[in-house]
Design goal:
Elements (H helix, E strand, L loop, with lengths): L33 H10 L3 H5 L4 E2 L2 E2 L1 E4 L4 E4 L2 E3 L4 H22 L2 H5 L2 H17 L2 H9 L4 H27 L4 H9 L5 H21 L1 H7 L1 H5 L10 E4 L1 H4 L21 H4 L20 H12 L7 E4 L1 H6 L8 H24 L3 E7 L6 E2 L5 E11 L5 E8 L5 E4 L2 E4 L3 E11 L9 E9 L4 E8 L12
Antiparallel strand pairs: 1-2, 3-4, 4-5, 6-7, 8-10, 9-10, 10-14, 11-13, 11-15, 12-14, 15-16
Helix pairs in contact: 3-16, 5-7, 5-9, 7-8, 7-9
Bound molecules: iron/sulfur cluster (2 copies).
Pfam families: Fer4_18, Fer4_5, FixG_C
Organism: Sedimenticola thiotaurini
GO molecular function, one term: metal ion binding
Length: about 475
């Protein structure tokens, strides 16, 4: 069912529910214009997807999502599974960003950035290049199979498949050595996961961008299903100014004093990638790409009428005759506050990710051991993670307990991006033992680098009579 917001023009008799063409193949026309240019700029963001994996940074791949070794490299920053909480805030940030964009500007993400619409646009550009404008494409589709049709269709599908395969390789390249991946593919020696990714992405891209196109936006995309609840009458969407456009009348029969500005040329429908008629009101099938605005502005300029018969506007603005946008202040302010908080937490989190992680666990079973000499011993499990890309030497010291001796491995050499787990012991003669639980601080000194402190306790018989052993 369509989601239309009142007020809206009357739907023409026999028009049915014009939300979405759905039944027939759509042959969108390509036209230049400011929103088409904007779409080119925003779509070029995806060049990063294709070329990003080959960026080098200080002798290594700048971005590497190394799942087998459970580490994600972003330039100098290494993110380990321990930092998964950061991902929570990144996802929350992205969700809130999507929410605020939808509240203000509807499906602007779909129209300008979404991979489905960007790839579909690329595929239709290739189609136009090879098969010609919409009418020629329709004629070719209807024509019987012959050499011309076979060659034309083959060329198009080959290019589509090439792009689909490049998409698959590019996706896989984020997860492994990107340059080696090409060698492995050509030598037929790639990891089975790389072949599966290539096969899935090639098939998916070819099917979704080549054949399903706008059907994905309407029927498969979960975002399309939920974005209706975020809309309000202040949401800025491509809107047909029915007050000015109606009654629409074809130019040949137009009577100047009765008709509105719409000359019913159908160009706004012809360019629409989802095949809808925006004159029937704001609709769920509209991906907010603005191409109908370009088309109508072109028509208005040609018939010497002011542009903006279709324009980005909210229903509230349109009904009140206000030409400027009206923003839902409360919703946007709350969303921006959440966005800013997430961003702050992410930045602080990244700043706190150092070269080394330290975790110390005081054994509870037993809490202490009384040695034959009468000394008291506590045992600790120590976990040191060298997150840097160079090997490092570490020394463990303890403070807070006079004359305590560290037994076990207090000097460790740890390879790059490796975690070491070791047990160490603290011993103290019983005569020097303070009463109660003694707070202590372990200090981990990285050679030529940072010092990390970790608070723990030393427990003797006075503090925990039932727990110890001898
Ligand atoms: S109605 Fe206009 S803005 Fe909406 S999808 Fe169609 S061309 Fe794009
Ligand atoms: S492009 Fe403009 S004038 Fe032509 S049908 Fe659409 S709204 Fe009317």
């Amino acid at each position: 069912m369509p989601t239309t917001l009142t007020p809206q023009p009357e739907i023409k008799a026999g028009h049915g529910l014009p939300v979405y063409a759905g039944n027939g193949k759509i042959y969108p026309k390509r036209m230049p214009g400011r929103f088409r240019r904007l779409k080119h700029w925003t779509a070029s963001f995806w060049l990063l997807f294709f070329f990003g994996p080959y960026l080098q940074w200080e002798g290594h791949q700048a971005v590497l999502l190394d799942i087998p070794h459970r580490r994600f490299q972003f330039f100098d920053l290494t993110v380990m599974p321990e930092d998964i909480w950061l991902l929570t805030f990144v996802l929350l940030f992205l969700a809130m960003l999507l929410f605020v964009v939808t509240v203000v500007a509807g499906r602007a993400f779909c129209g300008y950035v979404c991979f489905q619409t960007v790839w579909t646009d690329l595929y239709t550009w290739i189609e136009t290049l090879i098969e010609g404008p919409p009418r020629a494409r329709q004629q070719l589709d209807r024509a019987p199979w012959g050499m011309h049709k076979l060659l034309t269709k083959s060329a198009k599908h080959l290019l589509w498949l090439l792009i689909a395969a490049l998409t698959g390789v590019s996706f896989a390249a984020w997860f492994t050595d990107a340059r080696q991946l090409w060698v492995d593919y050509f030598a037929l020696d790639a990891h089975p996961a790389a072949w599966i990714i290539l096969a899935m992405f090639t098939a998916g891209t070819y099917l979704f961008a080549g054949f399903m196109r706008e059907q994905v936006c309407f029927w498969l995309c979960p975002y399309a299903r939920i974005q209706g609840v975020m809309y309000g009458d202040q949401t800025i969407l491509p809107t047909y100014n029915y007050l000015r456009g109606e009654p629409r009348q074809h130019r040949s029969t137009k009577q100047a004093n009765q008709a509105g500005d719409c000359i019913d040329c159908g160009l706004c429908v012809a360019v629409c990638p989802t095949g809808i008629d925006i004159r029937d009101g704001q609709q769920i099938g509209c991906i907010t790409c603005g191409l109908c605005i370009d088309a109508c502005d072109h028509v208005m300029t040609r018939i010497d009428r002011p542009t903006g018969l279709i324009r980005y506007s909210s229903l509230a603005s349109l009904a009140s005759g206000n030409k400027g946008p009206s923003i839902p202040i409360l919703r946007v302010t709350v969303s921006l506050a959440i966005l800013a908080s997430c961003l702050l937490i992410i930045i602080l989190g990244i700043n706190n990710i150092g070269d080394t992680n330290l975790n110390i666990y005081h054994y509870r079973q037993p809490l202490f051991i009384t040695m034959s000499s009468g000394d008291i011993r506590n045992r600790y499990r120590i976990k040191i993670q060298n997150r840097s890309q160079v090997p490092a030497h570490y020394q463990i010291l303890v403070s807070g307990l006079e004359n305590a001796r560290i037994m076990g491995q207090s000097n460790l050499a740890i390879a790059a991006e490796t975690t070491r787990v070791a047990d160490i012991f603290l011993e103290l003669s019983k005569s020097q033992l303070p009463t109660g639980i003694t707070p202590i601080t372990f200090r981990l000194i990285r050679q030529g680098g940072a010092v990390i402190e970790y608070r723990s306790v030393f427990i003797g018989p006075d503090a925990a009579a039932p727990g110890g052993t001898s």
